Amino acid sequence: MTAPAASQRKPLLVVVSGVTGHGGPNASLRAVVPLLGSFECLLVGPYRSAERTQWTEAGVLVEAVPRPRGLVARTRAVARLSRLVWRLRHRRPVLFANGLTEAALLAPIALISRLVLFVWVHNYAVPRIAVALSPLLRRIAAGPLTVAAVSRMAARVAREVFGEIPVVVVPNPIDRSFWDVRREPIGDRRLRVSYVAGTDRRYKGFDLLPSIVTASDELGVDWLVVAAEATQPEAWRALRRSAGALRWSSVELRGRTDRVQEIYAITDVVLIPSRQESFCRVAAEAMASGAAVVAARLDAIVEVCGDVAEYFPSEDPVAATAALRRLIADPDRVEEMGRRGRARAGRFTRDAVVARLRDLLGDRAEGASRAAPPRTGGERLGGR
Q: What is the CATH number of domain 6-173+349-370?
């Protein structure tokens, strides 16, 4: 088959991701990259064989680089990225950093090669590597750089790194299937309250659950705890002790699931006791599914939910229980919040987010293509 002429080829987008788990940034990439049909996409990150196969089946080529943990791994990752970009330099690719760690890895490459850098910030705090390379990142801010952030909270974090530059808010996308969730009316049955999050990091507030579950026993609710990566053994032991001592409520524990829509279909209220968030995908998914939200009052969560949530001060289990009590005492309000939540979550549809990214990336790719030098050698997309 004859290769397409250079003028007929799609612009190249090199997407660099640290593959940080199953939520947040990685879930956003899975939702949007296969739909960026106006680009030829090459995904670069520490992807295993099974993950590379999934991406390839979705029409996205993958290049493996080391996970950037520690100085040696970061040096190897930058070296591998540098060789990759050099090999593709005649295409003048747009470099897409899926977070501030990835931006720090790509910044020296973008400066030396004079390529466009696009950064999508998902961070709630500045990673250490971005702190160390902040002078370099501020220097690149004066060049061909576009910064998007999933929320105003994440935009503030971006400005800590890049300085006072324009930041476009592009939220995390929520799959259309969450709006298709159907639930039974509450009627006279007991309410189900769910916690849906990972437990590998303290910021999700998993360790607050035992106190909240115990304090809300008298409310007579059915708890469903869907928690992944249990690296807080003491919190798990405390939760099991609390569950075993309940008189009127119940607790069901489940591990991680790829069918979280099925969890929301049997959930009336989603509890989010987080300490930090940059967007809060769970809140958006819960609203889209028609569940009411009870959450810690964090800027990022309020930005997602607005007045369609019941809030409590962060790290206050007593206040969290009081917020649950207010909702559980009024099932009609639970259902009304669910209806309003579905409407509010419309701003986070995948189609809306993909369209916004296409516009931003298209503008950058057009400028990059005008600066593209003539082709001088071969190329290879995808690899190990």
A: 3.40.50.2000
